[in-house]
Design goal:
The protein has 218 residues and is an alpha/beta fold. It has 8 helices and 8 strands; from the N terminus they run E-H-E-H-H-H-E-H-E-H-E-E-E-H-E-H. The structure holds BIS(adenosine)-5'-pentaphosphate (AP5), magnesium ion and zinc ion. Magnesium ion (MG) binds next to helix 1.
């Protein structure tokens, strides 16, 4: 059976999580975020969470082998049998190669790159509020929740991520430019990518992403 594998690329704070939640609902695909999976492991105190914590707090990428094992375990589950939406993976060319080797020839890979300049990223990230319950993201000024501190979607509590400080953001951006930006070129040569202007409003970005997903699918 062929699977739809939708990949969201973009810098930290580009809006991958914001769009992934909506795209997953709209396309009926499970939303798989490697950042969320690490944070889940961290909150449960698993050995994997312990190993990842130091890298995440420093703004570095977690080593490929830890990420790839965790991701393959997740997408091997029943709910991903018909396809899935990847948010934050692959982030290195080695991760893209490992995913490529795992997929079947008939799987339909679609790649969307959400483009936002570095100058807009710091404000987005330092004002972000994240839901521990469902993964939804808000922003103090750009996208405030209806009730302060509470998720509009699931009623869960909102909090600021440990790595969302101005200092760590600089490191995350550097890791993005060095290690993740080449992944877009890797896909451009192999399957093509759909570039979306991520500086538009969240609704406009969603419309553009949704059009990409449909376009590639038809
Ligand atoms: P991860 O959790 O994936 O973080 P990230 O890539 O740094 O991306 P973010 O979640 O910060 O941003 P986003 O693009 O999801 O933006 P969002 O929608 O929230 O990874 C965290 C760490 O885990 C990594 O640093 C690494 O250590 C490790 N890791 C994870 N995956 C890994 C991998 N594959 N390999 C190795 N290590 C890995 O939006 C941001 C803010 O902007 C929000 O407040 C939102 O409300 C606002 N916003 C969104 N869209 C708009 C808009 N259009 N206009 C105005 N504001 C907007
Ligand atoms: Mg995210
Ligand atoms: Zn929620």
């Amino acid at each position: 059976m062929s699977r739809q594998v939708l990949i969201l690329l973009g810098a930290p704070g580009a809006g991958k999580g914001t769009q992934a939640v909506r795209l997953a609902e709209s396309l009926s695909l499970p939303h798989v975020s490697t950042g969320d999976l690490f944070r889940e492991n961290l909150s449960k105190g698993t050995p994997l969470g312990d190993k990842a914590k130091g890298y995440m707090d420093a703004g570095d990428l977690v080593p490929d082998e830890l990420v790839i094992d965790m991701l393959f375990d997740r997408v091997g589950r029943e709910d991903c049998a018909g396809g899935y939406l990847l948010d934050g993976f692959p982030r290195t060319v080695a991760q893209a190669e490992a995913l490529g080797a795992r997929l079947d020839a008939q799987d339909e890979v679609q790649v969307i790159d959400i483009e936002v300049p570095d100058s807009a990223i710091v404000e987005r990230i330092t004002g972000r509020l994240s839901c521990g319950g469902c993964g939804a993201v808000f922003h103090r000024s750009f996208n405030p929740p209806a009730t302060e501190g509470t998720c509009d979607r699931c009623g869960g509590g909102l909090s600021q991520r440990a790595d969302d400080s101005a200092e760590v953001v600089e490191k995350r951006l550097a890791a993005y430019h060095e290690q993740t930006a080449p992944v877009a070129g890797w896909y451009r040569e192999r399957v093509g990518i759909c570039a979306v202007d991520g500086t538009q409003s969240p609704d406009e970005v969603f419309g553009a992403c949704r059009a990409c997903a449909q376009e590639v699918a038809s």
